[in-house]
Design a protein that fits this description.
With 497 residues, the chain is α+β, with helices and mostly antiparallel strands. The chain has helices at residues 8-16, 60-69, 72-79, 91-104, 119-125, 133-142, 147-165, 231-244, 263-271, 284-292, 331-335, 363-371, 374-386, 397-420, 436-444, 468-479, and strands at residues 54-55, 172-179, 182-183, 204-205, 208-212, 218-222, 251-256, 275-279, 296-297, 305-311, 320-328, 345-346, 350-357, 448-453, 456-461, 483-484, 487-488.
Length: 497
Amino acid sequence: MALRRTNPKEVTQMVTNENQHSDKTPAKQGSEEAAPEPNKINASTPYDFSGKNLTPYGGLLPVITMLEKLGFQPLVEQTLTSKRIPRAMDLYRFVLGIVLGLYIGFPRLNQLRFIARDPILTGILKVGKLPVQSTFWRFVNALHRNVARQMLTIMRTMRERVWEAANVKLEVVTIDTDTTVHTLYGQQMGGRKSYNPKNKGKKSYQPMLTFIAETREYVWGELRNGDRPNGKQIGDHLRNVHAALPPGVKQIYGRADSGFYCWDAIEAYEEFHARFVICARKTSRLVEELLRAEWSESPKTDAEAECEFHYQPDGWGKSYRFVALRYEKTREEREEEEPEQYQLFETSQYKYRVFVTDFVEPIDFVVWFYGQRGGAENLIKEANNDAGLAAHPSGRFDVNGNHFQLAMLAYNLNCWLTLFNREPQPDATQLRHTTLATSRLRFLFVAAKIWRHAGRTGVSYSDHYEEKGVFERLMDRLRRIVPRGQGYAPVMLPALR
């Protein structure tokens, strides 16, 4: 078929004709650059040990940035005292090395040999290699037992600085106080055969700890022998907690289990005007009050009945409001002889949960408020399993007490980084807690390469790191921390209240 030549005028009319249909240019279906092929790794893949300055703990960079910006080193040097300083490192670097080892996940001093040559850790400590285990032990054994109290002072000051820089303006806080049981398998000083539900008859420690429910921070605590704390020890502990809170806190709410059911605890709470809910312990007089009380249905709780009454236990200065829940026992439970539980006591027919409080709110609110205290048990479990709190490395009680506070400092490092890494929200009740185990997987165990060029040192991370946006945001906030007057300028908006 012969081709017809087209008149130029006809071509112009065809192009400018709006009614003329034309095919659209197809969209590009792929990127301009070809996707790289995956690395082929198999049994015959060659390997060597020629890589230099590589570290699996690249997430230590935000940690040391926060500590440096908040003046951690001069604070440690001014607060801690030690008569013996080994020549390998100074006091600050020994403390920092142990705390970072706990933060990474090595609760034993002999485990520090696994990271003795890690380039980012040795770069932070400014040494070519970490000292041997015996050097660390000589340093730890030379610390006086008052170092534990000095570590608490350091954490109190750091908490105030973190709250200022992270723009935390909490005026109302809830403090959760609890004890935990650490079974001992050696001949540690201070071990006692006492309350130990999981390993009955074995010696243990029974430390006491208090946390801030809103931020999950550890506020105060001490390593104790295996005996239950007496009233004076409980009262002194709560007063120390109050003194360790930041000065901006105006109202305190306290929660504690039946191990703290005593007049000394009530008296301490009232000294600093704290509202409280404490689980009551079973006594014969309290059971008589429960039997005489007027019970009603409890539609807003999981119990079958509820009641409230005013009652003054023996030795108490005045009477207080008691609220109680009652659960009817099944036939099988009546026939079985079960041991008394720690927070739920029973009679021949019923089980009871009883609380003493100065709240005026309805019973269901009091029960709900106390139920939130379960978060403290999870925090203690996190400290025991992840921060190395339950690892008592020495036979000496004072050394274990110092190690206790070092472990809780490592725990608090994660809480403080979480405050700097939070989303921009003002409501403290919406603040989510990232456990130390999760933080290690997301932000600590990050492969990195340390490079040096023209007198400068830097850290390079993988371009495949999934959390690079969050990591960059955190580093930007930490590097903007600057002193302002007697405190620190906030680097985040809005304020957390």
